[in-house]
Design a protein that fits this description.
With 219 residues, this protein is an all-alpha fold. 84% of the residues lie in helices and 0% in strands.
Length: 219
């Protein structure tokens, strides 16, 4: 009975850690990724902020980050996490690597969403005297709303997977729980439980994301 209570308590803590890592990283990376995606879009658009050099530099940095497997990026960024939060283990230390990876990933998704907006609408707004800030908030975000929501769903699922991978280096969460209680103790049933939990979470995220995107598309 005591072992079962300890198991349930550890699993609950792991779920809370995963929720903390994913939710905080998601909010930060959505904000940063949307702004970065807009910069990539605007600097390549001859009507907004055309600047080939800036676009090339931003694109190069984003592509370098995206080309790195998360486990390598994680190990590379963890020393910086220690400088920022004072530790290289636990959920707090994993936030920064998750944000770096997800921001680069989401920036490309948001850039693609902005490119999907009718250019005629943007040109009309510019001819009417709208500035870049107004175009961003009143044209691009509303017009790309459903696509951005779908992108957020994809980014959330990717973050969930990355947070689980972070468990291999003591990042906490469901991934660390699966390794500590399942893999290292040869408890296959615990691994199956963790897989089932993550699969269920992904299904819920996808359902909510698809529903929100459909609502935004209709409106």
């Amino acid at each position: 009975m005591s072992n079962r209570f300890s198991f349930v308590k550890a699993l609950r803590l792991a779920l809370l850690e995963t929720a903390y890592m994913v939710s905080l990283s998601l909010v930060i990376s959505i904000v940063l990724g949307t702004l970065l995606g807009y910069c990539l879009y605007a600097t390549s658009n001859r009507y907004l902020l055309p600047n080939r050099s800036t676009n090339a530099v931003l694109g190069f940095v984003v592509n370098i980050i995206r080309s790195m497997p998360f486990i390598i990026l994680l190990v590379a960024v963890l020393p910086l996490s220690k400088t920022v939060v004072g530790t290289m283990v636990g959920p707090k230390a994993i936030i920064l690597p998750l944000v770096v990876s997800s921001t680069a990933f989401f920036s490309r998704l948001s850039e693609s969403a902005f490119r999907g907006v009718n250019k005629g609408v943007v040109e009309y707004a510019l001819s009417a005297g709208a500035n870049n800030v107004q175009i961003f908030f009143t044209i691009l975000l509303p017009e790309a709303g459903s696509t951005l929501l779908s992108a957020i769903t994809v980014a959330t699922v990717a973050l969930l997977g990355s947070s689980a991978m972070a468990g291999t280096v003591g990042g906490g969460g469901v991934g660390h729980f699966a390794i500590s209680y399942g893999y290292e103790r040869f408890q296959t049933r615990i691994l199956i439980v963790c897989i089932a939990i993550l699969a269920a979470i992904v299904q819920v995220i996808q359902f909510i994301g698809d529903w929100a995107a459909r609502r935004a598309d209709k409106s």
